Amino acid sequence: METRKKILITIGDPAGIGPEVALKAFLQFHDKAIVFVGDADVLSEAAALLKLNLAIRAVDSVSEAIFDKGILNIIDVGALRGLSWQKCVPTAIGGRASAQFIRCAVEIILNGGAEALVTAPISKEALMLGGVYYLGHTEMLAELSGATDYAMMLTGGRLRVILATIHTAIRNVPDMITLGRILGVIRHANTAAYMLGIIAPRIAVAGLNPHAGEAGMFGREEIEEIAPAIEAAALEGISVTGPHPPDTIFHKAYNGEVDIVVCMYHDQGLIPLKMIAFDRGVNMTIGLPFIRTSPDHGTAYDIAWQGRASATSMAEAIKMASTLRLPTWR
Q: Secretion signal: which residues (predicted)?
């Protein structure tokens, strides 16, 4: 009986680099129980482009998969069957197909067919063109799985960052920084540490404003919302400090003094992480009822279907999905 963790890989937007990086990364994990979810013809074409000697085997369920070297199992969703689709640009067809791949994978996992999901890149523009209105993977996965309390975390090199706000305009961020939201993200950071196997994690919370507000001179969010959230988390037994000036806390994290940095907005966390680990970053969603990771890059239409996309981040995402553990207190 197969006892390895079952990992699903969605191929992402077929017009982008998703099929290519998924195939390249897959070759590094012959010892893993991996099943693709997407379109068999797309993968066959990508494999031919890359000159890969793979037997692409369509299955109806994970239980039918054969996990042997040289065999790639795929659940063909049929989203592109009979359709003419265009490569290297965002399209409605590609957006709808990538959404169907995700829905199918989540359904399989929620029904007990697999334990982890690795998602290749999708395009928010293509989703919108296809009438699928989500801000991204994270929000879509949360809705499909019924998760209402979740957070986006990214790891790369020496940094791990978790975001208090995700895909929203900068002008919206200050009003979203509340005690309840920050406390929740600190809790998610603590959960992420458990999932990663970090013992006695050191969590640091970045401020929103320059110099973490400078005692209220540059903003009062640190005093009125962020610091009280940190105090509340500490009372729960979480090892957390802050609010730290955003321009220094990442240096401390890089030097190993901090395990996870709680960031107030998207680019506060992603700029330093991508600076040091642009091709190795991994996105993980905390708060879902299953393990989910993805490469920390987009569809890269400009280099798609040329055989030259790096699969390093995708391989890191698969590796992380295979090692993460879900919290027992869900």
A: none
